[in-house]
Amino acid sequence: MAEKVKFTKMHGCGNDYIYVDLTRETIADPSVAAILWSDRHKGIGSDGLVLIDRSATAEADFSMRIFNADGSEAMMCGNASRCIGKYLYERGLTTQTQIRLHTLSGIKVLTLHLAPGGTVESVTVDMGEPVFESSSQYDAQKADGLDGTFVSMGNPHYVIFTDDVEQVGQRGPQLECHEAFPQRCNIEFARIQSDGIRTRVWERGSGITMACGTGACATAVAAMKSGRVRGREAEILMDGGTLRIEWRKDDNHVYMTGGADFVFDGEISRCI
Fold it and tell me: Is 80 helix (H, G, I), strand (E, B) or coil?
């Protein structure tokens, strides 16, 4: 009988991942596991695989690695980091309500907001400073003539403001691998509305997802920088739910707040 691996499926605004606790389990080849297990017909079904472990450095408490559904490794994920905060606290791996999480794009600080019963109601993630690349590096005219804004939130995003956010399925895959983005790119199509910014996202390595935390941050700061929204806070309305984004003036950091939910626990054959 094949050895089993215990996992937990969680989602943040519908952005669903398979979480494996490496303090209790081992994964020999996470890229292969991500491909096999993320398959929505033959596997568990998810946008990718997230590995949780204790940090190897004193600067952080825990670490995360994230692998997209195509097996490629991502720098970090805002929705996944919120889920990790909830997992660590509610599964008893920490009693802290502020957690330093090591990612490939640096250490992110998670602040847990508890409900009266002691469960994690929402999580605020300090996503760090946005980086706007120069137009000489990312030429909007090279990206199929779409006038967008490149923003790095630890991973690359190209935000396009348009009335037609439904073109994500057609244009997203073309733009992800466009020559303007040598390392591929996450693509956001966003529309300004009275109740917030309606955003649909094509995630690099995963395709259309219900939500993207770094994408929500990139969209918000692109809208603020261009004067499309006033102030330094915005509600980002994604397919799977709403994220609140604040771009603080005092430290230039972007803060993302939203919920996280358990879906189910299970076991799957290791297979690799």
Answer: helix
Rg of the chain over all Cα atoms, to the nearest angstrom: 18
Give the containing element (helix H, strand E) for 160.
Answer: strand 156-161
Only one residue has tokens 């358990």, namely 262
Which residues touch 27 (CB under 8 Å, ≥6 apart)? 5, 20, 33, 49, 51
Least confident range from 65-69, 132-136, 239-243: namely 132-136
Considering 13, 83, 212, 217, which one is annotated as catalytic? 212
Our answer to whether residue 83 is catalytic in this structure is no
Could you identify the residue written with the tokens 């390595």?
205
- Active site (annotated) includes residue 185: no
Q: Which residue has the higher pLDDT, 226 or 2?
A: 226
**Which of 77, 83, 185, 217 is an active site residue?**
77
The whole-model pTM stands at 0.91
β-sheet bridge partners, residue 9 = 18, 264
Q: Whole-angstrom Cα distance, residue 133 to residue 149?
A: 9
